[in-house]
Amino acid sequence: MPVESVFPQLEALLPHVQKPIQYVGGELNSTVKPWDECDVRWSLMYPDAYEVGLPNQGVMILYEVLNEREGVLAERTYSVWPDLEALMREHGVPQFTVDAHRPVKAFDVFGLSFSTELGYTNMLTALDLAGIPLEARDRTEDDPIVLAGGHAAFNPEPIADFLDAAVIGDGEQAVLEITDVIRAWKAEGRPGGRDELLFRLARTGGVYVPKFYDVEYLADGRIARVVPNRSGVPWRVSKHTVMDLDEWPYPKQPLVPLAETVHERMSVEIFRGCTRGCRFCQAGMITRPVRERSITGIGEMVDKGLKATGFEEVGLLSLSSADHSEIADVAKGLADRYTEDKIGLSLPSTRVDAFNIDLANELTRNGRRSGLTFAPEGGSERIRKVINKMVSEEDLIRTVATAYGNGWRQVKLYFMCGLPTETDEDVLQIADMAKNVIQKGREVTGQNDIRATVSIGGFVPKPHTPFQWAPQLGVEETDARLEKLRDAIRGDRKYGRNIGFRYHDGKPGIIEGLLSRGDRRVGAVIRAVFEDGGRFDGWREHFSYDRWIRMCEKALPEQGVDLAWYTTRERTYEEVLPWDHLDSGLDKDWLWEDWQDALDETEVEDCRWTPCFDCGVCPQMQTSIQIGPTGKKLLPLTVVK
Ligand code: SF4
Q: What are the residue boundaries of the Radical SAM core domain, all occurrences included (predicted)?
């Protein structure tokens, strides 16, 4: 059955909304495949506005991987802003894809990629606009399978009632495996309906289907156990790990946005995973082990990607890009290759050492020098031991001196507030560090107009990290601590005017904390917030703390729990955590030991350079660390003219 485009109805609404171009589709490198020639159809959503969603690498990769497969189509959909949402409701226009403006409800799968839990209400908006029942149990044979992925899906329990399924880990192989299961089931005439399809997916061991698991609670509100309610469904669901990134050089044809977006550049992921062991970092923990893309693989992706897009900047992405074993050759090789084309190169890098400055100098050889960002994360040496961020103030000052000596004038320092065991004193040392940075800058340059910016965010304990048991700092305490720091910086006559101070209050962080470590009972809060008008919670101007508090007070007490129970309460070793049945590969006992080491202020090394410390990932996932050097060179490719 052909599916009609909703564009004619949508087009009439577009003159009445802001930035209508974001809903039009047809970007360079986008794909529209004939509906009737495909038997498995995915709609993919990044549940935020187009300007944030389009550059998302995860969605871009899956879009291309699926569309490359014969007989499979994938289209993208993003969150519509409230102005268009109101008009769509008034005129009966459903949630649509931007590629062919097909209704999301017509697809086989509605896949959502969550980088942050604050996108949950946007998922409900999209489901509602699509005409798909919010709760999985109300869906019929005509509804798509609603599937979540992305980092936030490592604990999908707060949205379990709204999901048919979730996948944890790398998506590129997983979506193809899921496609095969759907295709076979459809070819057989859909035996057993969607229930059988979900069962087949669950049986693979790599797809979590919440309805096949019952959660039992203790009288005090904690979880007693999570148990499969259908024979053949595994007790624990495994994460997916792609081992050879060179075999997956996606995106090959990156999308070029039509409207302004947060990143206007081509990105190449140079490695996945991180073993530095920063204890607060969920991304680092859940993406282990480290898998590097080879230097030749990177070179080819940059070459092809630039030709396919016309971008003038390349971002070399990863969790800590300066750690790639051949990054110096990559940076030099690319800077040499694109000297004449004035292609800018950038890498998000948080390592604090002189090598990083050399790298930054190399990368900016063809373009402009803006600021350098370092992330010591904690203000005192003590708290940096707690979080396992092994940077001494001496290192930082030495690095900064090199940066100023090389002509950099702006240094940004990133920190967190509310880390476990933190005191006011730990945070106030941030002010001292910033002053020392300015002083060093003045010394090295002989100039007074040196600037440093301190940026500080609230710490949120995350599942599958050693801090998953930690109490989160409350809103009032976070705000009070940040005010003391602000006063210490602004009140300094000698340096205060040269230090920029950016901070966020603790309110969004505590809601993110609720959603990160919540269980299925939190779903009632998310639904209530959505029904009360909650949208775009990741956006300061749309986020309403008062609404979340009201809905927590409405939905949680009848379950015998409250917001503080989920956030500021410390968990014990014995407690069953809501995500224990989702296997990130990390051994729970190792995480607990690392938590105890944190409390003892004991650091662990990076297992890339030291012997394995048995976090569990490699044996559990049958994977291994994959790093160079390969001995290969970025060029022999011919220099691009
Ligand atoms: S199992 Fe060992 S080598 Fe593998 S990531 Fe963990 S600590 Fe590193």
A: 260-498
Q: What does pTM read for this prediction? A: 0.95
* 211 C-alpha to ligand 1 centroid (Å): 33
Cα-to-centroid distance, 612 and ligand 1 (Å)? 5
Two structure tokens written together for 286: 């859940």
Query: Is the torsion defined by CA of 390, 392, 393, 398 positive or negative?
Result: negative
Nearest-angstrom CA–CA distance, 96 and 77: 6
CATH number of 265-370+605-640: 3.30.750.210
State the burial class of residue 575 (Cβ atoms within 10 Å of its Cβ: 0-12, 13-18, 19+). Answer: middle
Task: Tell me the C-alpha distance between 543 and 372, whole Å.
Answer: 30
> Backbone dihedral region of 167: left (phi > 0), alpha (psi from -120 to 50 degrees) or beta?
beta
CATH 3.40.50.280 in the chain is located at: 6-232
Q: How far is the centre of ligand 1, averaged over its atoms, from the C-alpha of 584 (Å)?
A: 13
Instruction: Give the number of other Cβ atoms within 10 Å of residue 397's Cβ.
Output: 17
Q: pLDDT digit string (tens) for 31-74?
A: 999 999 999 999 999 999 999 999 999 999 999 999 999 999 99
pLDDT digits (tens, 9 = 90+) for 251-280: 999 999 998 898 888 999 999 998 889 999
| Ligand 1 atom with the shortest distance to the CA of 607 | 8
Terminal-to-terminal C-alpha distance of the chain: 49
Task: Give ligand 1 pocket residues (Cβ under 6 A).
Answer: 275, 288-289, 607, 612-615, 617-618, 625
CATH 3.30.750.210-classified regions of the chain: 265-370+605-640
CATH of domain 6-232: 3.40.50.280
Give the separation between CA 33 and CA 49, rounded to whole angstroms.
24
Closest-CA residue, ligand 1 atom 4, reads 618
Number of the ligand 1 atom closest to the C-alpha atom of 290? 5
